[in-house]
């Protein structure tokens, strides 16, 4: 049995409770603000600016590995999780906290339920941290463990699910056409731990019916996990449609400047799971941080958090800008004689355009918008595709996406190479596909570069 708290420790706990109450009141006020205001100010208010921030207009960077304590009582309270603490940056850091709070507020914008967030060193770290506890064995340890995912996921996610999770005894069941609910329904049974969808998918632009997927998951007592990296909360907030957990590669759309790598997990309170303990379900992101995350150590660098906070401030403006540019480029390519197919959800003729319109729109408006990512197939061979690709003059050849500069890649030889030819066919990634992420350049200049490269075929 735990010993009663000493008077010194109790004093710190009481003080922390007062501080937490003030922070909760501040947070309730922030939740009433508009999206852009939250993105600009986040969880850093004037009280902190004139306290810990010493008057700084933007969040300070805490480039210290650890927190010092006033005395042994405060250390005991902090390391016993009795008071808010950032004892060690592998577990927590104030600058990272500001980013986590801002992301949680933006993802839960307009939602009845609140959310919490955990930032990680990369997008892959976020996905791994988010799903691993959901796949843990029970005490008996003999049951089959499965999960259901759309096949159209980032190549690293495919490898994680198909190889690494299989190594630990969890079997993925792939949905080839995630827009068809019957494909999901036939794969869910008593062994299923969660549903997973990437929307829009990279690079194929697949999507699904989020509300119907959430209903299916909850009917079976399991969570729905959504990778919303491409959309960002400026265009889509899955928690508002019933999703339990949202993951992001912050490296991409949110970190549009291209300066750093990071990931995030955002989960609403009291998520659905018949396998997790009540403590974990109540506040999943915080539970992850205090227990599994602290033991595995995929922490975010505070300088990365600072850079991402600054990218986040202009998120809505930037996503509107690049969405409009991408629409124009996609329209051009859809009529080009050397292009056989264009995957962009913003094209009215795309088979999933109507479904995507249900979920993707510029925040605080009813205007459908579909982001910066698209893919198209070259008319010809894989060699022709490489010829086109090698002749791009202004569009960068790189495996990144979400940049303010336009970037292109050939997924079959880059992002999706590791999953093999059969898996690429399952996911709809042919060797003639080019993935294009349109940036902030004038669309006419992007189109001119594409046109001259296509002329080389």
Could you describe the 3D structure shown?
- With 457 residues, the chain is α/β, with parallel strands linked by helices.
- 39% of the residues lie in helices and 13% in strands.
- The chain has 19 helices and 12 strands.
- The chain has helices spanning 7-30, 35-41, 46-49, 72-79, 94-107, 123-131, 155-167, 181-185, 210-219, 232-235, 278-282, 284-290, 292-296, 302-312, 315-334, 353-357, 382-390, 420-427, 443-454, and strands at residues 115-120, 145-150, 170-175, 192-198, 224-227, 245-249, 263-268, 339-343, 373-378, 396-397, 407-409, 433-437.
- The protein has a 7-stranded mixed beta sheet, with helices on both faces. It has a 5-stranded mixed beta sheet with strand order 8-9-12-11-10.
- Strand 4, helix 9 (210-219) and strand 5 form a beta-alpha-beta unit.
- Helix 5 runs parallel beside helix 14 (302-312).
- It is globular and about 80 Å long.
């Amino acid at each position: 049995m735990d010993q009663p708290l000493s008077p010194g420790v109790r004093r710190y706990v009481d003080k922390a409770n007062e501080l937490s109450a003030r922070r909760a009141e501040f947070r309730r006020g922030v939740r009433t603000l508009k999206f852009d205001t939250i993105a600009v100010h986040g969880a850093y208010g004037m009280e902190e600016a004139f306290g810990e921030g010493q008057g700084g207009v933007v969040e300070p960077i805490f480039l210290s590995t650890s927190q010092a304590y006033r005395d042994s009582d405060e250390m005991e309270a902090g390391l016993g999780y009795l008071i808010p603490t950032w004892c060690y940056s592998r577990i927590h850091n104030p600058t990272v906290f500001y980013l986590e709070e801002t992301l949680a507020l933006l993802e839960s914008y307009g939602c009845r339920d609140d959310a919490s967030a955990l930032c990680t060193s990369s997008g892959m770290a976020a996905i791994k941290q988010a799903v691993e506890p959901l796949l843990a064995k029970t005490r008996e340890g003999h049951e089959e463990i499965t999960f259901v995912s759309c096949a159209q996921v980032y190549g690293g996610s495919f490898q994680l699910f198909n190889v690494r999770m299989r190594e630990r005894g969890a079997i993925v069941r792939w949905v080839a056409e995630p827009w068809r609910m019957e494909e999901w329904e036939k794969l869910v049974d008593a062994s299923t731990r969660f549903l997973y969808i990437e929307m829009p998918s990279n690079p194929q632009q697949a999507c699904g019916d989020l509300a119907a997927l959430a209903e299916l998951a909850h009917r079976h007592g399991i969570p729905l996990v959504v990778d919303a990296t491409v959309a960002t909360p400026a265009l889509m907030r899955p928690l508002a449609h019933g999703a339990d957990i949202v993951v992001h590669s912050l490296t991409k759309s949110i970190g549009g400047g291209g300066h750093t790598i990071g990931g995030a997990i955002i989960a609403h309170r009291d998520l659905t799971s018949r396998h997790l303990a009540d403590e974990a379900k109540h506040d999943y992101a915080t539970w992850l941080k205090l227990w599994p995350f602290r033991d595995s150590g995929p922490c975010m660098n505070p300088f990365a958090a600072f850079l991402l906070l600054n990218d986040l401030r202009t998120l809505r403006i930037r996503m509107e800008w690049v969405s409009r540019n991408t629409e124009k480029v996609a329209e051009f390519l859809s009529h080009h004689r050397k292009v056989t197919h264009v995957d962009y959800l913003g094209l009215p003729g795309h088979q999933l355009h109507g479904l995507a319109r249900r979920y993707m729109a510029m925040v605080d408006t009813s205007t459908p918008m579909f982001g910066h990512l698209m893919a198209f197939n070259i008319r010809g061979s894989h060699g022709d595709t490489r010829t086109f690709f090698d002749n791009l003059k202004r569009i960068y050849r790189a495996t990144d996406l979400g940049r303010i500069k336009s970037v292109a890649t050939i997924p079959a030889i880059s992002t999706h190479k590791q999953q093999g030819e059969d898996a690429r066919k399952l996911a709809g990634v042919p060797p003639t596909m080019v993935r294009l992420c349109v940036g902030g350049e004038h669309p006419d200049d992007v189109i001119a570069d594409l046109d001259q490269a296509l002329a080389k075929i």
